[in-house]
Amino acid sequence: MNRETIKEILQNEGILPQSKFGQNFLCDEEIISSIVELCEIGREDRVLEIGPGLGSLTYPLSELTSNLTCVEIDHGLAEYLSDNITNARIINADFIKAKDLGFFDVVVSNIPYYVMTDIMKKLFGEFPKARKMVFMVEDEAIARIDCGPNTKQYGPLAILCSLYGSYTYEFKVPHTAFVPQPRTTSAVISFRREDTADILSPGFVKFLNTCFAMRRKMLKKNLSQMFAADVIDEAFRSVGISENARAEELEPETFSCLYAALKK
Ligand code: SAM
């Protein structure tokens, strides 16, 4: 889908892009092909796309699998896509609130930037069995995704990304690749699942949020909202975490071991 096609659809359908939903539609055909290629979709793959918009990625994705589910918050866009794409299940819903979507092998999204963290947390918590995830994000948000302990940005999102699997920064995307153009540069990133993802679940996401609820407080204090004191003490001993540890000091794998010990 190129710039002219997108402008034409917007005009013919009377659609005004809504900035509150982060609507910047991808119009660079080379970038679209590269993203779709990165998804490595096979015929039988169950694919989830969040925020299909006008279908820049949806059309080429729908040619690769007959098992494509798209979740779009905007009623007008969801209706437009349902009328025009035959080979995909279009669900008009807020992805953050959507339930019972099924199982997926591949997840792809040109993520609406205002809700990036919540979308990624939900994906890693609820769809950790997916083999591959490919995202377009704001370039400056990478600092929150690709960072380690003892940095300002380190938190639940970075830990989930690290435990899900191997991360690749694929390429930068200039603001000129969208209609309308955002102010910032974007980037395409991908994750390939590894066995460390076995720990991921909605409960684990909740546990991480609790660990970081008050960043400057000791981890033990934060966890006391969720577990009894003796359970925490025993788990800290068995994993070898110091009494005074703060969440921001611990490696992603330590959270994985701690959660397993607490759930015993
Ligand atoms: N995939 C299209 C593309 O690449 O051109 C559109 C990408 S645009 C950056 C983000 C899309 O996500 C918009 O269509 C927007 O309406 C949709 N969206 C925003 N918030 C959403 C949410 N909470 N759940 C589902 N879709 C959402």
Describe the overall structure.
By secondary structure, the chain is of the alpha/beta class. The chain folds into 2 domains: 3-198, Rossmann fold (3-Layer(aba) Sandwich); 202-262, rRNA adenine dimethylase, C-terminal domain (Helicase, Ruva Protein, domain 3, Orthogonal Bundle). The chain is 38% helix and 17% strand. The protein is built from 11 helices and 9 strands. It has a 7-stranded mixed β-sheet with strand order 4-3-2-5-6-9-7. A two-stranded antiparallel sheet has the order 1-8. Helix 3 (58-64) links the parallel strand 2 and strand 3. Helix 5 (116-126) crosses helix 8 (202-211) and helix 7 crosses helix 11 (252-262). It is elongated. The termini are far apart. The model has no long low-confidence stretch (mean pLDDT 97). The structure holds S-adenosylmethionine (SAM).
Keywords for this structure?
264 residues, alpha/beta, Rossmann fold, Helicase, Ruva Protein, domain 3, 2 domains, seven-stranded mixed sheet, two-stranded antiparallel ribbon, binds S-adenosylmethionine
